[in-house]
Amino acid sequence: MNALSNRIKSIPESATLAMAAKAREMKEKGVEVISLSLGEPDFKTPKHIKEGAIEAINSGNYFAYPPVNGYPDLRKAISEKFDRDNGLKYGPDQIVVSNGAKQSIANVFMAILNPGDEVIVLTPYWVSYSAMILLAEGKPVFVRGTIENDFKATAAQVQAAITEKTKAIIFSSPCNPTGSVFTRDDLVDFAEVLKNREDITIISDEIYELINFGDKHESIGTIDGMIDRTVTVNGFSKGFAMTGWRVGYIGAPQWIAKAANKMQGQYTSGNCSIAQRAALAALNGSMEPTKEMAKAYEHRRELVYKLLKEIPGFEVNMPQGAFYFFPNVSHYIGKSYGEIKINTVNDLCMFLLEDAHVSLVTGEAFGDPECLRLSYAASDEDLKKAIAQMTVSLAKLS
To answer: Does residue 10 contact residue 341 with C-beta atoms inside 8 Å?
Structure first.
């Protein structure tokens, strides 16, 4: 008898990828589905980045295995970026380049967690955090922020969640799925709570750093006493429209960087050589395309906020970064349409996929069963059409 491991049975399928797969199935059957489920920029990778990859291919110099932790010149450029843009002091030997920020985070959990270790997860959270913790045999401890506080958990809540078993804390800012941004004051409050527990590693996921509509992006590693315990995660997918290139990285205390390098050396080895050259071109080239993308997202944010506020029963806040809305839609739980009964937000998302032909993701996957996530990384036309179709479908529920 063939049997899967308890490890793989303990984790759910990625909800975002599952919904995207269902939407693709419908499209293959000829149904016009507007996908607002994936966190993927709808822009093309900027020209100078593609040219960096083409130059690397044509040079003939980048066809051998690259160093496990990344080419030295790319790690140097990332070190300089951390210093220049974030005020973070990570030397090149503290940088590990991976196959996307997802692998970067998985490397860290596999490197630091022992069975039963607890990781505080500020909730709502990116879907894969909890699965990664479980795969590393740790235990996620969820600390929930609510819409009344822009979905930001507080330092007091973190304090209450800390136990002798707490090994790490992870959060994203700007946040996926809520678009919330932790301010300098928020981070100082967290640091105050954590300062006496030097055994707790802080994992700060900053992949949406360049899509920030408010004040200057802040990193917790810049606060006194935090840099030696903070792993700062970033990458090229969101700000540079390079999702398929799969380049992420960490800046970390050297003992964690060495462990992550060791872990990666056994699992995947180094990131694609050509993708790394494209990433170097991104760091060394013009930031204008990135700024233009951020302006477009900000325009869409205003558009979608206005449209969502007009939907009866949607409770919506104004996100300060990333490209998501995370409305509370609990108003629709318990409603029905013919034989269709809405018992959960997942039911609601399936109804909207099948009736409105709009693909969304249930908030349950992100730690909040009363919400759903809508990505506005889509054209104005698609966003207007999708929300109009959602409004018509929702009106059928009673």
So the answer is: no
